[in-house]
Design brief:
With about 325 residues, the protein is α+β, with helices and mostly antiparallel strands. It has 7 helices and 11 strands. It has 2 domains: about 20-130, no CATH class; about 135-325, no CATH class. β1 (about 20-25) and β2 (about 30-35) form a beta hairpin.
């Protein structure tokens, strides 16, 4: 009788840093392997380019060793999670199956790495069992902007199911939305704030093969609950849930999972109340002022910088051009 344990017939690796891994076919095109090290410990690891892991922060988990390193034999990077106690094999299998399923849906390698790490953080919170921190004001505004984009920008052009399926911001992916031919990075700013946006990674505005890249900047004004059209996080979440229940019920599970990844909690109180004033779309192309992974081959990594919106005027998209990109005619 065949064992349900995916590690049962994997040979133990020899002592040293090299692992005798077995490729997980379900993870393709990304290279996830199962292995057993010379101590008999089960390992799941992802092989990737070192540049794909910029800005990664790894959780510390009791009973698990989460590690990032570079292989000496080919200079490839490895992201791995190792089970310390074989008695926990069943839950480790469920944990790693979840990682594999999430990574397999990634549209590029940076997203694959971020998804691998994001799932470890998800399980870290689950196993820790503690109450998660309430989202900061900045995070609340950012999430409101992403949900507004789902409901009012992408859904009218491509449908609600496509909008939910393409939402990647909650997974710590480089772009907030990845559609079949278009990537959108969302930024939310207050109407009274400085006239710039914060770019938090050299990957956020990087080119994506086969895709156009658009920077979408939402402007919100502070409001009170009594103002017509005012939004808070709970309110826009309920708008999205209602729309999904009516028009795309099969997308509900993916939406709720992304909400959870973003740190949203129905039991928390959120103080940010805003009115949506406007959004501006900018075409990110060759001359666009940005820092990308290829800008400085020898470093630095984990780059964050401010972009003055006044400098982006040459790249501003008119409504007609933006709509053409949204519907795939650009």
């Amino acid at each position: 009788m065949k064992s349900d344990d995916p590690w049962s017939d994997i040979p133990i690796s020899s002592a040293g840093s090299k692992l005798n891994g077995r490729l997980v076919s379900e993870s393709r095109p990304w290279e996830i392997f199962r292995a057993i090290d010379y101590l008999g410990r089960r390992i799941l690891f992802l092989v990737h380019a070192p540049s794909s892991a910029s800005g990664i922060v790894l959780p510390k988990m009791a009973g698990l060793d989460v590690e990032a390193r570079v292989r000496t034999e080919d200079d490839k990077a490895i992201m791995s999670v190792t089970l310390e106690n074989a008695d926990d094999g069943d839950i480790f299998t469920r944990f790693t199956d979840d990682i594999i399923q999430t990574v397999a849906s990634a549209g590029d390698e940076v997203t694959a790495v971020q998804s691998f790490v994001g799932r470890t953080w998800k399980w870290h919170a689950l196993l820790k069992g503690g109450r998660r921190a309430t989202l900061s004001r900045e995070a609340q505004l950012g999430l409101i902007g992403e949900l507004w984009t789902i409901l009012n920008v992408i859904t009218p052009a491509r449908g609600l199911d496509t909008a939910v399926e393409g939402w990647r911001g909650a997974q710590l992916a480089p772009k907030d939305f990845e559609l079949s031919d278009l990537c959108i990075e969302c930024k939310s700013r207050g109407a009274a704030s400085r006239n710039n946006v914060r770019i938090t990674s050299e990957h956020q505005l990087a080119d994506v093969p086969g895709h156009q890249v658009i920077l979408l900047v939402h402007t919100f004004a502070s409001a009170s609950k009594d103002d017509v059209g005012s939004l808070d996080l709970h309110g826009i979440v309920e708008q999205a849930r209602s729309a999904i229940k009516s028009d795309a019920p099969h997308a509900s599970r993916a939406f709720e999972a992304s909400l959870d990844e973003a740190g949203y909690d129905d039991t928390h109180e959120y103080e940010v109340i805003v009115l949506h004033r406007a959004f501006d779309a900018y075409h990110v192309e060759e001359r666009f002022p940005r820092i990308t992974p290829g800008s400085y081959p020898d470093g630095p990594l984990e780059v964050a910088y401010d972009l003055p919106l006044a400098d982006l005027a040459p790249f501003h998209m008119g409504e007609h051009d933006f709509q053409r990109q949204l519907v795939g005619e650009g």
